[in-house]
Write a structure and sequence with these properties.
about 525 residues, alpha+beta, four-stranded mixed beta sheet, about 20% strand, globular, binds zinc ion
Length: about 525
């Protein structure tokens, strides 16, 4: 606990540009030596869908009708002279492992970065292209009913668009790798607790609800936390020119400014580039935001919680906090190391719906959609597809990954992971800078905290669907595995500006005079 408090204090001081290293004693033998070789590069590609493409984000079908701002694949590559890792922030709702693996293999073939050392995180923009949920052909061997429900009534990936995403990711990483130069870096945190809110609430009715509605008098209190830290890894070349950064913050990208869009991510990029330079790379990876959104159900004011103003509010403020952290860390930047990636695939069981549940769902989906209760029909459809999914794949493989860059570690989950797990990772890891990343390298649906499955739990994320259906212990298993990966790594030195030599000079002659009263 004390260790944790010191760590939090150090992180807070670091974010203010104050370094405990300058206050502490001499470096002991078991502390890692400062890195010598450190290279980094940034690059990006446009992966915008086109008008008419499917717009994923809900359980049903929707199509893009306008374009607002581009969806991008933003990449960075780090190299310590021995290992290279790549981190990609993708403006997409999510990305399936099949596409990730194809991109990883193509990158390894093109430039030699090992497939397992590539992290691809989806920003979760709800205004991106059709990267899922279901893949073309996934249910071809299922019944005609399941095929109709999956392909015609559920959001599906478009093979042509997946190809564009894959090409964009590969080209961005290969270019970032080719642009690697000798670099220095540093990590820090900004802080904002006014843009992201837990969307699940304890209610007077007795069970938890998701989005009970702004001003609902039956709200008792939020059912889970938020994470106000804005994690930043900043990179400069050896001359001090800013190359780019990785930004980590936990909030659903659901502001929906209108049309095809990166959602609030575009404003983070714009804000940082406004001060640090238009050619700066800005890679955004979303934190554990499965239950966190921009909507404040407890706000007493009539405010816009969606649309342009909301995107600007979230992205502008998160970008500004990232910028504050970058400005604070700039003068301490130094070569970072080591650069390491480790991962593991966990076997997780799905929760099968009972035969009665499936039978009831089968009856509901036969009803006429025009007259049926829409919510009941949508969840019944999900149950029928889930039953088919479980028949084929009762146990899934879930990749967890730890990507270390010096004193910072990115710990990834393929889930829409609840925020508490991200806080548990930060508290349980010995790294001074822990950046939890959700929807990384695959999508396995919502994975709620175990408390949400208690009799007093509930809400949208705990319902069984074809999307969210893992066993209750899945979240803890993922968190424990990530903490084990983190524990197997040794944090690199968090750089500090060089210490001041003992004072030997003379005070400023104009400033060292006594007061003058005449
Ligand atoms: Zn979501």
């Amino acid at each position: 606990m004390l260790h944790r408090r010191i760590k939090m204090m150090a992180a807070a001081l670091a974010s203010l540009g104050i370094w405990l290293g300058t206050l502490g004693g001499p470096v002991t033998a078991d502390e890692p030596a400062p890195a010598t070789v450190f290279k980094a590069g940034f690059a990006e590609r446009d992966i915008s869908p086109k008008i008419g493409d499917e717009a994923p984000g809900g359980y049903g079908k929707a199509y893009h009708q306008s374009f607002r701002d581009p969806c991008m694949a933003r990449a960075t590559v780090f190299d310590d002279g021995t290992n290279r890792v790549a981190i990609v922030g993708l403006d997409a709702l999510f990305i399936r492992a099949e596409t990730v693996n194809e991109a990883r293999e193509a990158i390894e073939k093109a430039c030699g970065i090992p497939a397992g050392s590539i992290l691809i995180g989806a920003s979760h923009t709800h205004s991106g292209g059709p990267t899922g949920l279901f893949l073309p052909g996934e249910f071809d061997d299922a019944s005609d009913l399941v095929k109709t429900l999956a392909y015609e009534h559920t959001v599906c990936a478009d093979p042509e668009y997946l190809e564009k995403v894959k090409k964009g990711v590969v080209e961005a990483v290969v270019e970032a790798d080719a642009k690697r130069v000798d670099a220095k870096g540093n990590a820090g945190f900004g802080f904002d607790d006014l843009v992201a809110f837990n969307r699940r609430f304890k209610m007077k009715q007795g069970h938890e609800m998701t989005h009970p509605g702004q001003g609902n008098p039956d709200i008792i209190e939020p059912a889970g936390p938020t994470d106000p830290q804005v994690g930043v890894l900043g990179i400069w070349d050896v001359e001090g020119k800013f190359l780019g950064c990785v930004v980590n913050f936990a909030c659903h990208a659901t502001t929906g400014p209108g049309g095809i869009s990166s959602d609030y991510v575009g404003y983070i990029v714009k804000t940082i580039r406004g001060v640090m330079g238009e050619d700066a790379g800005v890679v955004f990876v979303n934190g554990m935001s499965g239950d966190v959104t921009q909507v404040n159900n407890q706000s007493p004011h009539q405010i816009k919680q969606f649309g342009e103003v909301s995107a600007r509010f979230v992205g502008g403020r998160v970008g500004a906090e990232a910028l504050r952290a970058l400005l604070a860390m700039e003068q301490g930047a130094a070569p970072l190391g080591p650069v390491v990636s480790k991962s593991e695939v966990l076997k997780l069981k799905r929760r099968p719906p009972s035969p009665e549940h499936v039978a009831e769902a089968m009856e509901i989906v036969q009803r006429d959609l025009k007259t049926a209760d829409h919510t009941a029909w949508a969840f019944a459809k999900e149950t029928v597809i889930l039953a088919a999914r479980i028949e084929k794949e009762p146990v899934i493989g879930a990749e967890v990954q730890a990507v270390q860059v010096g004193p910072a570690v990115f710990l990834t989950s393929p889930a829409e992971f609840f925020c508490q797990f991200g806080l548990d990772l930060k508290a349980g890891s010995k790294f001074p800078f822990v950046f939890p990343v959700s929807l990384a390298n695959d999508v396995i649906g919502y994975v709620p905290h175990e408390d949400a499955f208690a009799p007093t739990g509930g809400g949208y994320e705990t319902r069984l669907t074809a999307y969210s259906n893992l066993e209750v212990t899945a979240g803890r298993a993922i968190t424990d595995a990530l903490l084990e990966l983190s524990a197997s790594l040794t944090p690199g030195v968090a750089p500090t500006p060089p210490p001041l030599p003992p004072f030997k000079g003379q005070p400023w002659t104009y400033g060292s005079l006594p007061p003058q009263l005449d």
